[in-house]
Design brief:
heterodimer, A: mainly alpha, Non-ribosomal Peptide Synthetase Peptidyl Carrier Protein, Chain A, 0% strand, B: 740 residues, alpha/beta, Peroxisomal Thiolase, Chain A, domain 1, 2 domains, 22-stranded mixed beta sheet, two-stranded antiparallel sheet, 21% strand, globular
Amino acid sequence: MDLSELKQGIKQLIVDELDLRDRSPEDIDDAAPLFGEGLGLDSLDALQLAMAVEERYAVKIPEGEEAKAIFASVNALAAYIDAHALR
Amino acid sequence: MSGRERIAVTGVGIVSALGPDAAGTFRQICSGARGFSPVTLFDVTGQRSRIAAQVSGLSARDVAPAAEADVWSRSDALGVLAAAEALAHAGVATGADGLALSVGGTTGGMYEAEGVLAKMDGEAASDASVRRLLSYPLSTTAERISARLGPVRRAITLCSACSSGALAIVQGAAWLASRRAEYVLAGGTDGLCQLTYTGFNSLGAMDPQACRPFDGRRAGLSLGEGAGFLLLELESGARARGARVLAWLTGWSVQAEAHHITHPEPSGAVAACVIERALARAGRSPADVDYVNAHGTGTVHNDAMEARALQRALGPEIGRVFVSSSKGSIGHTLGAAGGIEAALTVLTLDAGRLPATGGLEVPDETLALRHVPAAGHEMSVRCALSNSFGFGGTGAVLVFEHRSAERQSAVATRQPEVVITGVSSFGPDGALVGVANAEYARPLGADAEPVVVPDPLALLEPAKSRRFDASSALVTLGAEQALADGAAPAAETGLVCGTAYGNVQRSVAFLRRVSERGPRLASPADFPHLVPSAPSGNASIYLGLTGPVTSVSDLGTSAEAAVELGISFIRSGLAERVIAGAAEPADPFIARVLSPLHVHKNAPARGQGAGWVLLESAPAAAHRGARVYARIATWIAEWSTPQAALRALPAPQGSDTERVLCANVDPELIAVLDESSWGRVARSEIAARAGEHEALGGVALACGAALVSNARSSAVLVCGLSRGRHYFALLVPPAVPDSR
């Protein structure tokens, strides 16, 4: 899987699924934290993103602390999907 | 009649998973029984939880009259059974004069409708499918109860998510305090359905096993279904007829957190404030409280927040006060919970027996609560709280006292006049604020330029309005504009939002996705926006409204019902200011399927829009020097007949500046008006300009207030009628200020 293409897809997914109408995928920094500060996303957003990632990439996101590490940034999420996606 | 009176609870009714009546349910809970079993109403394959507190053996068909056997919902059947029990328990006759009805709920006929909705594309449906939708509007249960136990003088159906049942009881108290009812049946009803089950599952909010409120291992809630009603009456009435008083309802309060659509505000500060205000209204202090029937859902966050709120509000007394949650026994019954738990609290006071929390084995020590021992506890309870909190952030707390309690406080007899200090609307003339709303009294000219109506969502801040749908956008924009027009602060301002059907389009999309992709792919972020109170909750969070926030549902007079509630909130001292009105965006399911079931045949083409008035107590408006558009000289809300409603109206004075505004053009209303003294007065029909929809009453009131401001009209009679509901508001210019 092409990692930069994957990251671009993830960013588009974030903008669409979390209804970030005032942002574009280009506004999202690959390394910046997604939750808490940064985009101002909360745990409801995390649930939605987990569901959307599972649907789009056929990757199951675990719950709890593990999910926090996976959702740390676009980079972290892309690495997780890349490692776990069904080829 | 004594000027100072308490409100007596003289009857209770409950249907739950643990019993078909109140006494049976209470006995079962006290004995430690738990009502959870595998869900059989629908398929729960693939979900975190497989259980619910389902009312076994309940068939709506068996409760409904034969002619309606295939159209009643579970919520209808549960509500009728519990309300009938409360009425009979109080010894009040069916059809008693002066009976009013206040019903809280969230799901209505969703269980019966969801199979049809998931397959429906907004086009014409089969007759059989349409019959499944007859109970879809939340207000249907009130119609069923009125038909079985009434006719009632007036009824209201409200939804503030999981505090709905408690808020319905608050409204019942307000009607009694203003002497607008002799008896009130008040409570909540909610049947289980796939939408709520799948939704809470998608939020990860359900414990895979039966819920364990306040336990250190608690992992979420368990859903239930049921209904709970109280029969309320004034102390003088109960004494005069020799009724046995079960308990007194002496305190209540309602406030919105304005924090988050699903998360409770973690410090518990707002919830604590609601508890403190409810106690203050009762004239009681924490030292008087012996028991709390907690909201106690079993989710990590609710129980932690509630424990903090109780600690804040009760202070050191918290170490002495027993706490338990009924949800460990009968599940979270959502809109019914406030009604059921209020009834259980009354029975606790009456019996002197405290029920334990089902499923609580290893208490979470960090919560520092005094739990009722597992075997229950016998004690004479002087004063008890019943707590309810909901999605969107509206919390309601009720204070009940033992029947032998000395009177500390009583309902106020001097009730303030209500004035309109801000108006806004949204429709074919765009977003109108202030006196511009007078435009709706003029029919649209044939040569009128079509107006490009702005998208309301585009007028809101994107980061604060994520996931808003058209309903939430219309409500938020209208409330913001009415508030700004009245130059009023958001804090402590309430919001009552009328919606006849809730957001059907979005519910259909959610259900269809679950049906096609499976429950794992249900959208957790969409689910909290499907409850009928989501738009009012969203607006309160966006704007910081922290007064009482709720939605109401009353078919074509949903806006008028919102004003009824807003006026009640102000007159009973619950709020100084309330934004009230309704919003109906374009929704193909409402336009093609639901609305035709209820709108009269000669209605003009369907429109869309919203209308709002900022209601304010006259003293509060004067105190802050607010501009007053109009004074509500007479307000009538009747479920009897329009003739009876009109008889209570003062006659017109014969001035040529008087005016009648009809929200809709229902032929029955026009005929009744023509026969009355108001038949000679110049009349405008709002629907002729704005199109037919269920929020027209808000537009009519905004228009009427604009007309009487600056004395352009000497009086405006605003009329709304919809299938047996009759609302009239007589708006007059504000009194000339006293210049002393």
